[in-house]
Amino acid sequence: MTGLPADGPVVWPLAHHRGALVPRDEATLPVGSIALRYGISVFEGIRLYRQDRGGVAPWLLRPHLDRLRNSCRLMGLDEDCAADVPAIIDELVAAQGIDEDGYVRVAASAANSGGIDEAAVTALTVTITRAGRKRRPGDHEGMRLGVSTWQRPSDAVFPSAAKNISAYAGPRLALAQARRDGYDSCVLRTADGVISEAPTATVFLVEGGRVVTPRLSDHVLPGVTRAWVLATAPSLGHEAVEDAVTEERLTAADEVFLCGTGLEFGPVREVAGVRLSGGSPGPVTKALVDAYFAQARGATAPTGVDLGLPGGR
Q1: CA-CA distance, 129 to 181, in Å (whole number)?
Q2: 89, 93, 96, 99: CA torsion to nearest 10
Q3: Are 92 and 126 in contact (CB under 8 A)?
Q4: Is 151 helix (H, G, I), strand (E, B) or coil?
Q5: How far is C-alpha 207 from the geometric centre of its chain's CA atoms?
Q6: What average pLDDT does this structure show over 111-134?
Q7: Which of 45, 254, 279, 303 is 20–30 Å from 287 (CA)?
Q8: How far apart (Å, rounded) are the C-alpha atoms in residues 253 and 100?
Q9: Does pLDDT of 137 surpass 80?
Q10: Are 108 and 124 spatial neighbours (Cβ–Cβ below 8 Å)?
Q11: Does the pLDDT value for residue 312 go beyond 50?
């Protein structure tokens, strides 16, 4: 779509909603829908990157769709909706003349009205927003990261593997508190006291060249960028492992960074008031960022990733 502003966030005006292209303002759900009453709506954020050879392409689309199917299964939604997403993205790109970086949001929501025990009727909604690099105060020095008093719930409370909107209510409160305390973001712990993840991103640390991230069993969402880092780090000469991570390990680490589809990479300079020794971004973080964008823009072949979902998906 031509005539869009050159700076600031931009939403392209069309949405694919319930099988048709419509203006975004018309992509609505009933006020009594199960999605609005009980928070039953899963989603994926997928980066759309401008390619070196021209045009745009969705990044790591297959694992995003695998996770969407898994989230739908966990939340009682129709997982078959994921099959239509690649064609819908192509349709939105072509209809709006998109030729720059974008953020695709895919939502599968329980659109029907009903009680808490009502079976869901799934509505698929796909939109694309203009997406440049994220900026924040002090970005050139890295982020200041707090350790929140809020916790990630166990899988006995809510399935960590479901990327459902209701799962972000608690992390939203944690992030708001961290900002009030002067931090850029935070990490949450489990009830057992080990580090889980940030409100919208995975946390990694670097210890003597080894890349470490919390285990999925620590109530961590199986992140697509997380899986990419675990698969890519060994090709850059760094062992990559999942392990129990404590606050003490974070503050003693050489490097710490957050990563996720929306954030991409967020180097950290300080954790809970302790400045890290390895600089921000450190050399391992820099190497991963360089590899990420080389692959995302089509200069090198993408790394295959395994999210660790049931059945190998």
Answers
A1: 30
A2: 150
A3: yes
A4: strand
A5: 24
A6: 92
A7: 45
A8: 36
A9: no
A10: yes
A11: no
Contact in structure between 258 and 266 (CB atoms under 8 Å): yes
Task: Answer whether 160's CB lies under 8 Å from 166's CB.
Answer: no
DSSP-assigned letters across all residues of 209-258: TEEEE--GGGT----HHHHHHHHHGGGGT--EEE----HHHHHH-SEEEE
pLDDT at 6 over 50: no
Distances 246 to 175, 184, 214, 271 between C-alpha atoms, Å = 19, 20, 9, 12
User: What is this structure's pTM?
Assistant: 0.93
Contact 174, 150 (CB under 8 A): yes
Computed over every residue of the chain, the mean pLDDT equals 93
How far is residue 134's CA from residue 263's CA, in Å, rounded to a whole number? 7
- Token pair 């990420």 is found at 292
At 127, the amino acid letter reads: T
Question: Which residues are paired to 130 by β-bridges?
Answer: 102
d(CA 303, CA 227): 10
Cα–chain center distance at 82:
17
pLDDT band at 27, cuts 50/70/90?
very high
Q: Would the pLDDT of 180 be above 90?
A: yes
Peptide bond into 281 cis (omega under 30): yes
